[in-house]
Amino acid sequence: MTFASLAFFTVAMSLHFVVTDYGLNEDHKAAYRRIGRWVLAAAVLAGFALGALTTVSDAAIAALTAFLGGGVILNVLKNEVPSERQSRFWAFALGAAGYSALLLTL
């Protein structure tokens, strides 16, 4: 994995987390502000620490990446593309195709 591909992945996931954070804040208001955001922030730090302290096989990394990718796609389709938010599927599909092409060229 190159630095550029990691940077693009980081930006894409960061933007996804911003949208997800906004949605959770809108749906769960006080509970999310009081507890939820801190639990999610701690989970990111715990995941980083676990990754830094353990060695994982390439097969496990591939499986976990596929699981993460599937979860992100399901979350996007459920929360970010619905018609009640006046989202457009063609914009999502164009962005996904463009990002895929960008990663394949790296």
Textual characterization of the structure:
By secondary structure, the chain is mainly alpha-helical. The protein has one domain (3-105). Helices cover 86% and strands 0% of the residues. The chain is built from three helices and no strands. It has helices at residues 3-53, 58-80, 89-105. Helix 1 packs across helix 2 (58-80). The radius of gyration is 16 Å and the shape is flat. The mean pLDDT is 85.
Element layout with pairings:
Elements: H1 3-53, H2 58-80, H3 89-105
Question: Which shape, going by the Cα principal axes?
Answer: flat
Q: What count of domains describes the coordinates?
A: 1
Strand content: under 5%
Report, as a whole number of angstroms, the end-to-end distance: 9 Å
Report Rg.
Answer: 16 Å
Q: So how many helices?
A: 3
* Sequence stretches where pLDDT stays below 50 over 5 or more residues: none
Report the count of strand segments. 0
Helical fraction equals over 70%
What structural category arises from helix and sheet content? mainly alpha
**Biggest pleated sheet:** none
Mean pLDDT: 85
Order of helices and strands: HHH
List keywords for this structure.
106 residues, mainly alpha
Summarize the structure.
The chain is mainly alpha-helical and 106 residues long.
